[in-house]
Structure formats: C-alpha cells, structure tokens
Specification:
The chain is mostly helical and 485 residues long. It folds into three domains: 16-157, MgtE N-terminal fold (Alpha Horseshoe), CATH 1.25.60; 169-288, CBS-domain (Roll), CATH 3.10.580.10; 300-483, Tetracycline Repressor, domain 2. The chain contains 22 helices and seven strands. The strands form two sheets. The chain has a four-stranded mixed β-sheet with strand order 1-2-3-4. A three-stranded mixed β-sheet has the order 5-6-7. Helix 1 (20-36) packs across helix 3 (57-63), helix 5 packs across helix 7 (106-115) and helix 19 (343-366) crosses helix 22. The longest helix has 33 residues, at 375-407.
C-alpha cells in the first residue's frame, strides 16, 4: 500500500483535507484515472489489476464513487479474490453497488452472496430491484437464503437488523478443548468478541472472554470460566437503544435474545460504529434541512430534489414576511419606516438565540442526558438563559442605537430616545419568541415521534423569522403609538 508519512504537527480530526485517509483517497483516484486513460485496453487492465493488488479493497471502495460509472465494474472485476470483492461491495456507496450489480450476472451474484455474511447481505440486497432480489434468493444456498429472509423480516434500524447471526455459542457442559476444536474449523468467524454459553433449552446463560479460552486448562468445563450476561437487548430494540447501551458500558459485543431469552444474534462494536455514523449523517442532514445523503457524487438533479421541499417552506415564510412588512409599512407614522431598517438584526439575533437553545437540548437528548426528572429543569435553564440573553442584548442594542443616532445628529431621521426604546424593546420581544421556539420545539417534535434535530433546520428557522418579526412590528407599532401620542 502507498506509504504516507506522518507529519510532526498532527492536523485536527475535523481537518478532512489534511487527513491521512483523504490524501490516500486522492492518490488512489489519481492513479485510477490515469490507468483508465491508457491508450490500449490491455495496458489499462494491467494497470488496474496492479492497483487492485497493491491497495486495500476498502480504500478502493471509497475511491470508486469518484470514477465514471463505466469504470467501476472494471475495477471490481480486477479485484484479486472473492473476499476482496465482498469488502469492496460492502464498503462502497449504494450507487456504485447498483452500477456493479447491473454488469453482473445472476450466477456471479450467487457466488458473491454465498460467501457474504447474512447481516451484510441483507442491506446490500436492498439496493436491488424486487425482481432481481427474488431471482438471486432462489439461486443462493438455501440455508443462507433462509437466514437473510429471517433477518429481513425485522424492522429497519432495529437490533434484529443490526445483529450478525455468525457467532460461537456452546452448551455449558462443553470443555474449553471441545469448544476450541470447533472454533478451529470455522476460522472466518471472529471469536474475540466472546463465546456465549447456553443451557439445554438454548437460553443464554453467560459468556466466556477469549482470554479465558487461552489461559485455562483445556479440560475445564465452560461453565466454570463463564461470566454473567449483564446487558442484552430484544430483537425489537431500536438502533438508538443499542448505541446507548454499547456506548455507556463500553461493550465489545451485545447479545440479542428473543422473548424466551434464546440467543438469536450478536451486535458487534463495528456494527454499532456504523449505526452511529448513519445516525450522525441523518442528523446532519435534518439540521441542514435536506433528505440528501452526505455525498459529493450524487447527481445534481437528485440533490436538488432532496433539498427543494425544505427550501419551499423557507420561500413561503419569506413571502409571509414580505406581506407583514408591507402591511405594517402602510401604517401611519414615520417610526415604523425606521424600524424596517433593523429587521435583519432582529431576525438574526432571535434566530441565533433560538438555535443555540434548541441545539443544546437536542444534544442532551441525543446523548441521553435528559430523563423524565431532569427534562423540566433543563428546559427551565435554557429558557432563562435565552430570556437573560435577550434582555442583555436588547438593552445594549437600544442604548447603542440611541448613542449612535445622538452622536450623528439624528442621522436616522428620528428621535434618538424614541427609536432606541422601540428597537431595544422590539429586540427583547423577538428574542423571547426565538427562545420559546428553540426551547419547546425539540420537545414538541420528540413528543410526536419526529427527530428533534429537525428543530434546528430551516423549517423552525423560517417559523422563527415570521413570529419574531411579527412580535417586533407589534411592539414597534404599539410602543411608537404610545411614545408619539
């Protein structure tokens, strides 16, 4: 593999441009593009085969989406063995899988899925059309097909979908030597995550760490070295519940049991990491106000369609804002005309205060810091922080407007004190509106079963603009009428 020297000053984790993997992706992409531009097909295939031998199939899977669609099946075909092809298919993007599958025969797909673990095959097969899925299922090994069908029955993003059905489980009366001999015959299954112990009714009783299999005598029964199972989940457990348990107790694996406490699968730490990445991608997308997957390889029109519905709400909210401004502008009194100049300041301040409140609460909910007992206290604290911040910046803004207008000899064309009071009080009212929206919208969305991360997106931001500006104009109009008589 290409050697990339480690620099003395290590870049921050979020500095993607300078990361080791991003530099490797760029190098691989450049190599592959140069290979595909060779004049003769024989030289091209030789270069691609050489690259496939020198680099990990996982790295090639990340580089493949940057290649033209016609080049991706060629790269797949030149991978050295079936194991490499499985790793490539599992780790690449959905679009690349679709393109590769389109160029593969049903028989080739059969050979691929016969060797692929059932839990990985389940979600890889979801990229296929229903018709081809049925054809492939008829061809692959019946036992493997039954496992895939069984796992596919479980709800998406549940423990039943996350688990793997390839693990080691033994009767508690077996000896370490007997278990070790059986494990030796199945080298592809990882036993370092633990070996699970069952009773005669196949109920989960405990587990044996891999270390205990090495340091103890081969004739010792497994029941003597097993440890109790402290954490397990049901098949219907949510992805969030699984992540929370593994994250809190730092587990390397988590057993999944049915209603009779019989072991049906194991969720590994790698599965949980992938689930966390998916959850993070979905959360970022909702915060940004899009259903778009985080990928630069998506077609332009597809990316537009993913963003358009959310932006349409913002467009409607903007038109409502224009209507509000025009209706208040028709009112008599010059003070409202000057109040219009401060609309960007009002919407910006109230929106930022609301987003800060909602972001803090959403993060607390995401990491499990909010419970039924602490929820009320957290809401009250965020509300008080938002109110205090609104009053501080509202008063400060009013004083600054007054001082600037006074020093510039009424440059804004209005009484300095009156204008300062109107702007300051209007900003306080708008910030209170933003605070209420930022504090209570995550709870509202959570209560109705929608991801509260959406409360930081453009929908709530658009609502905040409308409500805060309405409150601002009402305060400005009412206060102006009182002060000006």
């Amino acid at each position: 593999m290409e050697n990339i020297t480690k620099e003395e000053n290590v870049a921050p984790v979020l500095n993607i441009v300078d990361s080791k993997t991003s530099r490797l992706d760029a190098i691989l992409q450049e190599k592959l593009e140069m290979a595909f531009h060779k004049k003769t097909s024989q030289v091209m295939l030789h270069e691609i085969a050489k690259i496939a031998m020198e680099h990990s199939p996982i790295d090639l899977a990340y580089a493949a989406p940057h290649l033209p669609p016609i080049a991706r099946p060629i790269l797949y075909d030149n991978l050295p063995d079936r194991e490499s092809k499985i790793k490539f298919v599992v780790n690449t993007t959905s679009d690349t899988r679709l393109i590769v599958f389109r160029y593969m025969s049903d028989l080739e797909l059969k050979k691929l899925f016969d060797k692929m673990p059932a839990d990985e095959a389940v979600w890889v097969l979801e990229d296929m059309s229903d018709r081809r899925y049925r054809r492939v299922m008829e061809l692959i090994d019946p036992k493997k097909a039954a496992k895939i069908q069984e796992q596919k029955k479980h709800r998406r993003n549940s423990a039943g979908r996350l688990m793997t059905t390839e693990y080691f489980a033994f009767d508690m009366d077996k000896t370490i030597g007997q278990a070790a001999a059986f494990i030796h015959d199945f080298p592809r299954i990882d036993f370092t995550k633990g070996i699970f112990i069952l009773n005669q009714d196949k109920e989960l009783q405990g587990y044996v760490p891999a270390r205990n299999m090495v340091v103890n005598d081969l004739n010792i029964p497994l029941r003597q070295v097993m440890r109790p199972i402290l954490h397990k989940v049901a098949l219907e457990a949510t992805r969030e519940e699984v992540v929370d348990i593994v994250e809190r107790y730092k587990l390397s694996s988590l057993p999944v049991v049915d209603s009779q406490n019989r072991l049906v699968g194991v969720i590994t730490h790698e599965d949980v990491v992938e689930a966390m990445e998916d959850m993070a991608d979905e959360t970022f997308a909702r915060i940004a106000g899009t259903a778009e997957e985080i990928s630069v390889t998506e077609p332009l029109f597809k990316r537009f369609l993913a963003r358009a519905p959310w932006l349409f709400v913002t467009l409607i909210a903007g038109l409502i804002n224009v209507g509000l401004m025009s209706s208040f502008q028709k009112r008599e009194g010059s003070m409202l005309t000057f109040a219009l100049f401060f609309v960007p300041l009002i919407t910006g301040m109230s929106g930022n205060i609301g987003i800060q409140c909602s972001t803090v609460l959403v993060r607390s909910m995401a990491v499990g810091l909010l419970t039924a007992k602490t929820r009320g206290e957290a809401i009250l604290k965020e509300f008080l922080v938002g109110v205090f911040t609104g009053f501080v910046f509202g008063i400060a803004c009013g004083v600054l407007v007054y001082v600037i207008n006074l020093l510039c000899h009424n440059a804004l064309g209005a009484n300095p004190l009156t204008l300062g009071m109107i702007i300051g009080c209007g900003l306080i009212g708008a910030c209170l509106t933003g605070t209420c929206l930022g504090v209570f919208s995550p709870m509202f969305f959570s209560r109705i079963g929608i991801d509260p991360a959406i409360s930081s997106g453009p929908i709530v931001t658009a609502f905040n603009d409308v409500l805060s500006m309405t409150i601002y104009f009402l305060i400005a109009y009412g206060l102006g009428a009182v002060l000006l008589g």
